[in-house]
Amino acid sequence: MVSPKIVRGGKFLLMTIAIVIAGMSFRNRHHHRVEHVPGANNVIHNENLQNVQNVAHHQPDINVEEVERLKQEIQLLKRHTEPPSKPKPTTPAPKIENTAAENAGNPLLVTLKPKDGAYQPKDKNIHIIFSSSCSLFQGWQSELLFFSAMHVNQPGRITRLVSACHDKVLKGNETTPKPDFVVDKAKKPDDLKQIFMSSNPNAKVFETPTFDEAVAFKFANKPFSMLSWARTEMQEDDEVVILLDPDMILLKPLTVQPMSRKSFITDPVSFGEDGINVPRPKRAVAQHYPIGAAWTHDGYKNTQHRDKLDRKYNGSNFAVAVCGDASPCAHIKNSEAVQYYALGPPYFVHHSDVLPIATEWAKFTPPVADLCERDLISDMWSYAMAAAHHEVPHTQIETFMLSSTKSTGEGWPWLRNSFETDTRPMSCHNPQLRGGIHSPTLIHYCQNQNLRDSTGRQWMFHKGHVPPHILDCDIPLLKPPPDNFIDSQTNKEDKATAFYLCQIYAHINMMATAYKQKYCARAELNLSKVVFLHQHTNPCYMKGKWCFPYATVEPERYDLPKFPYDA
After folding, report:
1. Whole-angstrom distance, CA of residue 480 vs CA of residue 487
2. Do 121 and 279 contact (CB within 8 A), yes or no?
3. What is the pTM of this model?
4. Fewer C-beta neighbours within 10 Å, C or N terminus of the chain?
5. What are residue 347's phi and psi, to 5 degrees?
6. Helix/strand/coil for 538
7. In angstroms, rounded to a whole number, what is the distance separating the alpha carbons of residues 35 and 44?
8. Helix (H, G, I), strand (E, B), or coil: what is residue 61?
9. In this structure, what are the phi and psi dihedrals at residue 98, rounded to the nearest 5 degrees?
């Protein structure tokens, strides 16, 4: 039994502690905020400690050790004087089948329980790979993909396959850079170091040699890099390999958990089945692209590339020339090829099929590029032919991505309709996906997009217009469209386009901010959003390091002469 005297003393001590803590809280709230820079944690810790010491100085009878001792005594007294609290009733949590990504807090994935006996890979065993050159142009794109994976809590691993960084690697850490290792003329040797720097702690880099085939046809870099990685680095627990392009932004996690048939628009054969998105041995999954299958023996005349094939080769023998007469690729019908092989990234491929497909993909790419006069479509057709050669049909899903606003497929129909069913305001500076299962997974910013705001000013995005040194500490960030850019559009088509542009601008600025805060000293840090992208070449009123070919520093900020952005 505790005496009334001790209880009264305890109450007095409780009041004293409240005054001390209130004083500490008041000082902390009004203290100058320290920005996040390397070493800032120590600064904040030392200043808070000084605040505590100052409070103790102004309370001569109490010091820091006394405060901690009195807290313990108060807790002891409260246990004796306060009535016991009633336990809160507990409600059992509902049992829900979740993916690893959902457990990380993402509400946009609605997955199903696997069917009994069905093969089911795990999200934690996903390995995302993407290939790039060593240029700064693809450097910031790679970091953006790394950042978006971190931002959505993407499960599994992610690796950049980077090539053509050096002529050769010498002993130790010494390297000999190629004179043209960055097509955008890197301004300092330290640019090479950026390859191994990322705000994403899970980002990995795999260096490949320079491929002669990629010198003749630059897109051959992708199959040869994938083959090099699969032969030497792919692990047994890389259950599903997902191949992306560097110019992609994840809006929600990629998953291999079974999803509802309502989550996708896909080919007629697979439509109607739940779990069509799950890759398995001898059955892959990919985004549908409208590239046709002119490489088939009976389909080459039904394509925009017919004239090229006629000039270079007898189209009816195209697949035989590339795959060989004994290959299934040479005899597949056009209708079947269009249904299972008219596709592109993201590719979801089971571990057992990665090396076989990569081997033939690298083998087929040079002759296909030659026959198609090095058209962009060559690496996509050669992948399709390699998959057909090994008889690995793909479930084609239309709604994985957003790329061209002119597309009638992809995820655009659902996105456009979402602005009719959900009329809540949406910030351009912080755009959020809506619709749960009816929402695209990623943005593929491979084409030029533009739209005017309510004042008539044109906002556009093309990846080639972004300053290649945007990750440098002193380079400003992009100037985004106005915050009401989405809401001010008058129809669902333009709202969807505005959403697309806002997502890209917001992600680039978030990515560059996270990267610079991790690697830049405070004195060098430039996070001002003043770089305006425009459609045509820049007359470059500001000479020097901020003279960008297709962008300029905002004139209003630096009192520069005005010029017609939309000329």
Report:
1. 15
2. yes
3. 0.75
4. N
5. -100, 130
6. coil
7. 10
8. coil
9. -120, 155
pLDDT of residue 165: 81
pLDDT given at position 527: 93
- pLDDT reported for residue 113: 62
Tokens of 180: 């043209």
CB contact at 8 A, 137 and 464: yes
Q: How many CB atoms lie within 10 A of CB 53?
A: 11
Kind and range of the H or E run holding 344 = strand 343-350
Strands 551-553 and 284-288: unpaired
Q: How far apart are CA 413 and CA 418, in angstroms?
A: 9
* Mean pLDDT, residues 531-541: 75
d(CA 200, CA 430): 20
Q: How far apart are CA 43 and CA 32, in angstroms?
A: 12
- In DSSP terms, which residues pair with 348 in a beta bridge? 242, 285
Say which amino acid occupies 324. Answer: G
Distance CA 341, CA 383 (A): 9
Taking the C-alpha atoms of residue 547 and residue 553, their distance in angstroms, rounded to an integer, is: 8
Element (H, E) at 345: strand 343-350
User: How far apart (Å, rounded) are the C-alpha atoms in residues 351 and 441?
Assistant: 22
Cβ atoms 297, 330 nearer than 8 A:
yes
- 190, pLDDT greater than 80: no
Q: Is the pLDDT of residue 62 over 80?
A: no
Regarding predicted confidence, which is higher, 171 or 9?
9
Question: Which is more confidently placed, 117 or 86?
Answer: 117
Dihedrals φ, ψ of 329, to 5°?
-60, -35
224 CB neighbour count, 10 Å cutoff: 24
Sheet of 529-533: strands edge to edge? 477-478, 529-533, 551-553
Task: Outline where 328-478 has alpha helix (H).
Answer: 334-341, 351-371, 378-389, 412-421
**Beta-bridge partner residues of 349:** 241
Structure tokens at 10: 């305890």
Taken as a whole, the chain contains a residue count of: 567
Overall average pLDDT of the 358-372 stretch? 92
Burial 345-367 (b: 16+ CB within 10 A, else e): bbbbbbbebbbbbbbbbbbbbbb
Burial string for 122-131 (b: 16+ CB within 10 Å, else e) reads ebebbbbbbb
Question: Beta-carbon neighbour count of residue 279 at 10 Å?
Answer: 25
How many whole angstroms separate alpha carbon 244 and alpha carbon 247?
8
